[in-house]
Amino acid sequence: MPNTIILALVIFLHDLFTAVWIGGLITLGIAVLPAARKALGMGPQTRNLMQAIQKRLSTLVYVSIVGLVLTGLLMANRAPAFQGMFSFANAYSTALSLKHILVLIMIIVSLYRSLVLGRINNSSQPSREKLNGALLFLNIGLGLAVLFVSGYCAALSAGPKPV
Predict the structure, then answer these.
(1) How buried is residue 109: exposed, middle or buried, by Cβ count under 10 Å (0-12/13-18/19+)?
(2) Which residue of 70, 89, 100, 143 is 20 to 30 Å from 37, comparing CA positions?
(3) pLDDT of residue 136
């Protein structure tokens, strides 16, 4: 029973960190950014608001990334089909490796957006704002792909049910 509770807590935290990161991306890109642009226009007020929001969300993203790595390591050996990190030995390991590659790309994009683009004064360079927006939507797409591959991994680990 204690092992089940610990595993449930690890899975819960993994899901929570995923929801915070990917949910934050989706909310920012589909709700907050368009609403800010509609209410404030495309001027410096919108830019300042989005930079402030991104700064606060970056902290949550960094915590989520660390949490996902730690909980992912704790969960890694739970599936019998798991053959090791970045293994392509079977369908489950291949899907999990694809998920990890997508997550690594998401981390790189997130770090670039916050540490490089977030530190640059965008007021004189609208091309940087466009790049930042494009990278936001790239990460949303990658996040959705991660969720799909995670669902696929769960389906593979569940195995077929007898009819």
Answers:
(1) middle
(2) 143
(3) 93
Q: For the whole model, what pTM was predicted?
A: 0.84
Query: Residues for the chain: how many in total?
Result: 163
**CB-CB contact of 55 with 62 (8 Å):** no
Distance CA 104, CA 108 (A): 6
Backbone angles phi, psi at 87, to 5 degrees: -95, 145
The answer to whether residue 134 scores a pLDDT higher than 60 is: yes
Residue 123: CB atoms within 10 A of its CB come to: 12
pLDDT at 30 (0 to 100):
94
Structure tokens at 56: 């606060």
Q: DSSP secondary-structure letter at 124?
A: G
Q: Report which of 91, 98, 33, 100 is spatially closest to residue 65, judged by C-alpha positions.
A: 100
Neighbour-count burial of 8, counting CB atoms closer than 10 A to its CB (0-12 exposed, 13-18 middle, 19+ buried): exposed
CB under 8 Å to 87, separation ≥6 — which residues? 93, 94, 97
pLDDT of residue 163: 56
Q: What is the DSSP string of 38-91?
A: HHHTTSHHHHHHHHHHHHHHHHHHHHHHHHHHHHHHHHGGGSTT---TT--SSH
